[in-house]
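[retry 2/3] Sugar kinase: previous attempt timed out, resubmitting with same input.
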Amino acid sequence: MFKFGALSEGMVTTLKPKLGANPERARSHNKQLVLRAVRHSGTIGRAEIARASGLSTQAVSNIISDLLAEGLLVEQGHRSAGRGLPVQQYAIRPGGGYAFGVEVRPTAMFTALVDLVGTPILTHRTPLKDPTKGVILDTVCAQLDHALSQTQVQRHMLMGAGIVMPGPFGDTGLTGTASELPGWNIGDPAEIFATALELPVFVENDANAAAMAERMNGVARGLDDFAYLYFGQGLGLGLVQNGQILQGAFGNAGEIGHIQVLVDGRPVELESATSRLSVQACLARQGMDVTTMDDLTSLYSSANRHLMLWLDQAAQALSAALSIIENLFDPETVILGGAMPDVLLDHIIARTVLPERSVSNRPDRVHPRLMRGTSGRMTATLGAAALVLHQAFTPTIAEAR
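[retry 2/3] Sugar kinase: success.
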């Protein structure tokens, strides 16, 4: 099976190209160029791949032969190109490989097995009453076995596993927040999961993974620079620049939930005004126990007064945060998504005031400044799997050591 570049033992990193330093890496890089061109177009011919990848037609022909033999590409009929013989078309073969995605929250684990084009073939939710390391590791291993058994996918067809969990990573000044997983601030989570699963593993925070899911198959497909505000237990920010996740020195870039914004004239942490924890706490103070997205949807349908007040507060807080995000990162768009019902996200977007004094306030815009994601409540879970697939379609070559 095609080996898709160097897998890092930890967070996904941007690797510096050094073409020619290692013939095998150079060949792997070129395979990724071809796969990226095919995935971007859906179906495509050899000459078009050569133009898109910058490789010679002969090199593309050789690589396509390899990829067909490895089961990663499939012939997809012919297309007439004017005079001359019809052109053979190629597409990604969905069953050419699989990725396992895991999202760990303090109260539940979500898993997904997806094929090579990112289509989920199985998803599952498992309640977590005890989010300690041992329980989480045992549950992840059990869910992987369950997914393979239910789908009849062979283990050797797995390209790797992506694990997403709330940040921050490491022992920081934010340790101890209600949205984090206890005990995971010590040690290397990627190494721990890789040992347990015996697979290449990527670990990311949930917001970054959600951003990657939207870029693979959501509203951000084709975008190289955007920001993704993710509603998990808390509120995180995934930043994509030049097609790569912006991580920071320790993988904690985007912890926007802990910045201060003004709501009704008083400074509050953004996460305390607009997040799942925030709305649950607000409604709990009124005697309402809200635990699921369906609960929130039902309250919205009945125009619950307390929920409506919270939504106004959330929109106000988001308006202040939007000014910071736009002027710091100059994104093509800001996307809202995650574990929040679409109707609530649409309500917040409709009432968010777009700041006039912003670099994003320009007449030549192609995309709206604020959009709702389309990947739904499984966004971060699918994003976990997308971390693995991203490597197959992103040409990166590590420096020779």
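[retry 2/3] Sugar kinase: Residues 1-21, 397-401 have pLDDT under 50 and may be disordered.
[retry 2/3] clearing retry counter.
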